[in-house]
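Quick one - first record:
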Amino acid sequence: MCIWQARLVSIAVLGALLTACSGNPTKQEIGTVTGAVVGGVVGTALTGSTAGTVVGAGAGAYVGNKVGRDLDRVK
């Protein structure tokens, strides 16, 4: 997968996930989606492979989820 293809897919997924939320998303939800997209793009840029994209997206989603959860708790 080329970098431009990964970016296009990431933007499409982000748009779909954000429009799927009917109410106000929590910081945890926003962090999960943002982390997945950024992680996927970084994984693609570093490895140039589909596996790198998937691993990067998973790692980014995990980290984004934890950061967002902590931000939700601070309220």
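second record:
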Amino acid sequence: MSVIRPLVGHTSPETAFLIADYPYGRKLRCQRRVWIEHSPSHGFRFVAQTTNPKTGRWNTPHKSTYSEIAMGLYLDEQGHVQSMAVTQYANVLHALSFAREFGRQAEGAGIFRVFALKKARYLEQLASGEAHFTINGKREETAPAEAERNLAESKQWLEVAELLNPERLGESQ
């Protein structure tokens, strides 16, 4: 990922990140505010809302799809607001990138840390044979090369968990 500037603490319309001069149609300009919404039963989602330049009132917010694990807002190289999320389907390289960029500042960092620890433990169990797949009622043994890959990925998930460790809060990220 390229250089980004994380935006932290924008979790409601009142604390939203405000863009004062945003295009509205072809000629008009408005204000736009963005934030991350959280639902305990669904997860996190990106929300954006603009003002109507003719009335000054806030329009209906536009809401993205929920991401169960974690989400963060950032400014890209052009100064545009973007969001990045981690779902249960994220690969370890995406998870590492997200953890390095946002660390404990991400919305859902605690949930993400627990997820990473569980993922690491599961991969360790697959590597050791403690966990296995069953296909058509028959236990599938893990090949040695696959066990090595699982163990290596487990270590990467542990690195993700360490980046999200609350005790690292005082360290520079």
